[in-house]
Amino acid sequence: MNRYIRAAERIWLLVNVHDEKEWGEYLVCWNKDRIELYEDYVIPGKEWLLGRKHLAHSIPRLRVATRLSVFSYVDMSFSLVCAAEGDNKLLKSHRTTVFVMRCSTRSRSIDWIWSLWRFLGGVFPAQLDVHVPVLGTKISLDVPRYDIVEDREGFRNLTPDRIIELCEDALRNISSYSDLMNAGMKRGARLALAWRHGMNLEWAWLKEDIHGRLRDWAGIFGWALQQRGSSVQLELRLASHSQSKLKLTSGSMIHEPDAIEGYLYQIRPNSQSRTAVYVSTHSGNLFTMTHWHAFPPSVPELRPNTGGMNRPRAQNELRRGSDQVLHANGFLDLRDILSVRKALAPLAPSQKIATLDPSELGGPILVDVDHDDDLRDVFGQDATGIVEDELSGQEDETVRMKKSFEIVMRTGAVIRFELPNSAHEWITRLRTLVRYWAHHHRQNARTEMDLEHFNAGKPRFEKIKRSRPQASRIYSGTLPDVQEVSRRLSTFWSWCVLAPCRPLIKSGKLFAKTKPRAHYKHTFMTLTAGHIATFSITAAQSCFHQRSRVINLVNSYVYSGLFAASDATPRIDDAFSPRLYQDGLESDDSDVDTIFVVRYHLYHGEPQPRGGPHAAERSSFGPPPPPRSTLERDAWCWAINTEVERIERSRNEVS
Questions:
Q1: 113: which DSSP letter?
Q2: Looking at the domain assignment, is residue 487 inside a domain?
């Protein structure tokens, strides 16, 4: 590469020339005081003959007549405003060109913003303010101008580790800080820096760029994000993974139970035939897959236990769980399960069940999932000593009942599974999982509601009368506590996304479509191992949601806001329509604030539903799902961008 070229890479770019918008992927070269944008020729072979790409746009006189600004903090896109291209110098002074750029990874966008900000004369402040929101205090650190010993700019000494060390020295004598650190260390938390913009956190977690070069400014990059009317501040926070225990309203604590998986037989209600399936639970969902795509756990090695799971084995387990999700036929949401019980009679043919009457379901009255009944009354005194009898001809029906269990859904549907041995363990553990994840989803919804209502500046209402919904809203009277909201921000922007500890990085119900004029479809969306797997949510009585699409996030782009809304729908509706959801969340965000778009390439060999993988290899609309609120949209964009970041870095390590 020419030594005068500062940077050259492919960037997804929106070029707005004289109010004409055009998205495209360009090779952007920064050469001295000029940025050039190259694109591929339409005619095949022309690039090979000429030895160069087509120069589509250029930004001359970068230092003189160009303005830099952050276009969107959500996807970290930035804009460059310069004089319009053309030979007419008179028109140049009145017309401008806006380039909205979005790099493939979030860190590369920050690298470009930082480099352009410095090149355009960005001014360093005299001191760095570090806020500690949990303690309600602020620490001011002097910014050295020049380091004579190292012969480099002084701000390069303010690395994230150095900033945290200086803050610890300043807070060491505060008693509340010691108590906070001791409590955080017990749950595995550690100190980390994050730049906060509104309710969004941008963790300073990458010390090197995507090419392995040191980013010694990783803790102070927020200076380049400051602009008029929108400020960001550096905060010192306790970063931790999601907790494996929950505190209930009664004061009791429940711990996350272990997941369960294994080979089962699913009993068909009409023919009573058995179908071999593999069942595995992940993050409150029960996934089913064929036995040749089961990815069962490997045989443990006969080595002494060293007191924990080593890193390669943990990574293999995460990958195995991700493969199960990507190859699953469908899933059941554990929140839709009303009861898990022992099978007591042959499964009746499928029929429409309007009520949960015991005579229709062929079993005892359903047991609430929050209570564990005495399994000995169901299985007998020897609940664990049931063995399979070798019978000639058809297997004894009594033995089959002892080896079977039923999952009763809230719609009244009954799904029966049969095991090679006793069903006691599956019933016990599934009941525990249903109970835990019901409370887990409830607490997550409460956290999101508190953050959303604090951001909106109004408390959550508690009751609405159906006769007069607009005039009878009863509010709680107070907003969530500032300290509590600050603490929950670290939980909402969890470290589990940056360093995955579960196969499912993020999952949830959204509305998606793949064409601008298509209708939105209710979809369950999962993010795992560099892929997005979507499952169709239908009104079927069985509550079983089949997999519909798998998207590879290699070389993909995520963007939101006005341009995402214009790509997702031909007509933009920016009206504010208040909405009330089932879990109590109230949101009045417009469609523009709740839509994001994923542009991705189609690859061969991806796990797809029946009909085979997509053959085309081109850029296409990804699912632009409108979440319920702006905060939820921001969390999805952040999670997907982080996963794309992880993919690109792993590819560079391999190459």
A1: H
A2: no
- The single-letter code of the amino acid at 4 is Y
Residues 175 and 282 in one domain: no
The percentage of residues in the chain with a pLDDT greater than 90, rounded to a whole number, is 29
Residues 524 and 645 both lie in one domain: yes
pLDDT at 574: 56
pLDDT at 473 over 80: no
pLDDT recorded at residue 279: 96
Q: What is the DSSP letter of 196?
A: E
| Nearest CA among 198, 176, 175, 180 for reference residue 190 | 180
Q: Do residues 285 and 265 share a domain?
A: yes
- The closest of 52, 77, 102 to 555, measured between CA atoms, is 102
The DSSP H or E segment spanning 561 is: none
Give the C-alpha separation, 448 to 589, whole Å: 14
Is residue 492 in some structural domain? no
Q: Are both 110 and 131 inside the same structural domain?
A: no
Nearest Cα residue to 105 out of 650, 599, 646: 646
pLDDT of residue 471: 42
Of 435, 466, 481, which one is at a domain's C-terminal end? 481
Any idea what DSSP says for residue 505?
Answer: S
Domain check: are 326 and 447 in the same one? Answer: yes
562 with 555: CB under 8 angstroms?
Answer: no
Instruction: Quote the domain boundaries for residue 627.
Output: 505-654
Q: Nearest CA to 627 among 505, 507, 519? A: 507
**Tens digit of pLDDT for each residue in 535-546?**
998 876 678 899
CATH number of the domain that residue 136 is part of: 3.10.20
Residue 325 and residue 458 share a domain? yes
Same domain assignment for residues 519 and 537: yes
Q: Which residues contact 597 (CB under 8 A, 6 or more apart)?
A: 558, 559, 560, 564, 567, 568, 621, 622, 624
Sequence-ordered list of residues with C-beta below 8 angstroms from that of 417, at least 6 positions apart, any chain = 264, 265, 266, 267, 279, 404, 405, 406, 407, 423, 426
Of the two residues 65 and 290, the one the predictor is more confident about is 290
Asked if residue 164 has pLDDT above 90, the reply is: yes
Ranges of beta strands (E only) in 212-354 are 233-239, 245-247, 253-255, 261-267, 274-282, 285-289, 330-333, 337-342
Residue 120's identity, in one-letter code, is L
Residue that has been written with the tokens 């070069």 in this structure: 213
Q: Taking 50 as the threshold, does the pLDDT of residue 166 lie above it?
A: yes
Same domain flag for 138 and 98? no
Q: What is the CATH number of the domain that holds 423?
A: 2.30.29.30
* SS3 labels along 465-504: CCCCCCCCCEECCCCCCHHHHHHHHHHHCCHHHHCCCCCC
In SS3 terms, 53-81 reads as CEEEEEECCCCCCEEEEEEECCCCEEEEE
Q: How many domains does the chain have?
A: 4
Mean pLDDT over all residues of the chain? 77
